[in-house]
Amino acid sequence: MDTFEAINSRRSIKNFDKNYKMSQDEISKLLEVAILSPTSYNIQNWRFVIITEQDLKDRLSELSWGQKQVSDASLVIVLCADLKSWNKNPERYWINIPEESRKFLVDAMKSSYNEKPQVQRDEAMRSCGIAAQTLMLAAKSMGYDTCPMEGFDFDAVSRLISLPDDHVISMMVVVGKAIKNASPRGGQLPLSEIVFENSF
Ligand SMILES: Cc1cc2nc3c(=O)[nH]c(=O)nc-3n(C[C@H](O)[C@H](O)[C@H](O)COP(=O)(O)O)c2cc1C
Asked: Is this prediction's pTM over 0.70?
């Protein structure tokens, strides 16, 4: 599917075929492209918790104020990030480049994030947001639909997935076979209201 077609046809879907199962190969294909999403310093700080078991999806739906797309979708992806990935053997993010350049980048990265919890969190949200869009467009071009979600109890979901203390949840994306189209778009703001040339 052409990229513009995927962008134009992606919508947040609420009704999925509960009996439809994605194959393991398809799930892997989706995740393999998600990890090509750009991250600052190639930090690859996202961590994807994929949920396919019906019991868990049902529990997640309860923790999402009963939103049924969570239990009906084939796959729920909880997009998390490791806030401390900048300090966990970061040399491996540039394994393919010369040692001198690698050392330069590691030092720069450490000074960007060390003792800066707000920046660590900002980076987590940036990385996961971009990865979420990659997932949604890739899913669309594979014949699936998605819904991005932040409408859930973050603390309870953190406990459910045993989120490590130094990680954070950014959002969820559910993926499945749509059985009902989305309602017409809510209404997009005109470019004249949201685009500014050179300065505000
Ligand atoms: C970060 C984020 C969180 C969202 N959370 C929810 C959610 O919890 N439940 C839901 O039904 N839709 C959720 N949405 C979907 C938005 O309502 C939807 O993207 C918006 O209305 C535009 O519609 P569209 O995605 O179909 O173009 C979320 C979207 C984003 C980007």
From this structure: yes
